[in-house]
Amino acid sequence: MHIVLGLPDHITACLFDLDGVLTGTAALHRAAWKETFDPVLEKHGQPPFTDADYNNHVDGRPRFDGVREFLHSRGIDLPEAPPDAPPSDDSVQGVGNRKNERVQQIIAERGVQPYPGSMRYVEACKAAGLRIAVVTSSANAKMVLDAAELTKYVEARIDGVVITDRKLRGKPAPDSFLAGAEALGTTPANAVVFEDALSGVQAGKAGHFGYVVGVDRVGQAEELRAHGANVVVQDLAELLED
User: Fold this and answer.
1) Is there a single domain that holds both residue 96 and residue 168?
2) 19 part of the active site
3) CA distance 223 to 241
4) Same domain, 132 and 16
5) Using one digit for the tens of pLDDT, what is the confidence trace for 225-236?
6) How far apart are CA 194 and CA 212, in angstroms?
7) Domain range for residue 98?
8) Total count of domains within the chain
9) How sure is the predictor about 3, in pLDDT bands with cuts at 50, 70 and 90?
C-alpha cells in the first residue's frame, strides 16, 4: 500500500510539521524574526540576523525557546517575564510576542499557500487510509491550516498552544511528536515524521519514530541527514514517484 507514498509498509500515521513542510509560511516566520531581532542586535552592537541563524537556532522551536537559543548564541541574555508580556517589553517573552504580532500581520498581508506537492502528498496519504496529524511549534497553526484549506485533512493538531498548555518540551525534544502519535492512537514506531527544521528531525530521531522524512527547502540536506532524517527530499511530491 505504501509503495506509492515512499514509506515503509508498517507506517500507519503521518505527523507533519506545518511551516516549511505543508505551507510556505516558514519564509514569513523568517522575515518576522529578522524584523524583530535586528533592532535588538543593533542595540547590542551585533551584526544582523541571518538565514543560518534562523535554521540553526530558531526554526522549529517554540517561540520563547527560539529567542533564548538565538540570543544566547550571540552572547545576549534578556530577562524572563510572564508569557503575556507586552510586545514592547525588553524581555525574552516581549521579543517573542513582538515577533508573533509581526508574523500575524505578514500572514494577513500576504496570505497562506500550501505547497502544491505537499497538497498532493497529503491527499494521497488520506486516500491510502493513513492517519494525519500536524505537529508544530506555531501558536498560529489553526489560522494557517484554515487559510491554506488543509484543516479537513488533519485529525489532530499539536501546536504551540497545546505545547504550552501541557507544558511539553519543545523540539528538539520529541514530546510534541509523541503527543501527536498518541492523539492518533498509534505508536511512534508506526508513525512517520515530516520535518524541514534541524530541531524537528532531531525530535523524530529522539522519539524513535518509524521513519523521519527531512524536507530541504533551504539547501541543508546533509545537515538534515546528520540530525536524524532517514531520507531527504526537496518536495513531498518526490515521494510519490517511488
Assistant:
1) no
2) yes
3) 24
4) yes
5) 999 999 999 999
6) 6
7) 27-110
8) 2
9) low
Task: Mark whether 242 is an active-site residue.
Answer: no
Torsional sign, CA 221, 24, 59, 131: negative
Of 57, 85, 110, which residue sits at a domain end?
110
The CATH number linked to 147 is: 3.40.50.1000
- pLDDT tens digits, 9-44: 999 999 999 999 999 998 999 999 999 999 999 999
Phi, psi of 18, deg, nearest 5: -100, -70
Residue 28, all three cell numbers: 514569513
* Same structural domain, 16 and 32: no
Query: Which residues, 6+ apart, have CB-to-CB distance to 104 below 8 Å?
Result: 140, 143
9, 19, 175, 242: which one is catalytic? 19
The CATH code of the domain that includes 43 is: 1.10.150
SS3 117: helix
- Indicate which residue of 9, 17, 159, 175 is catalytic: 17
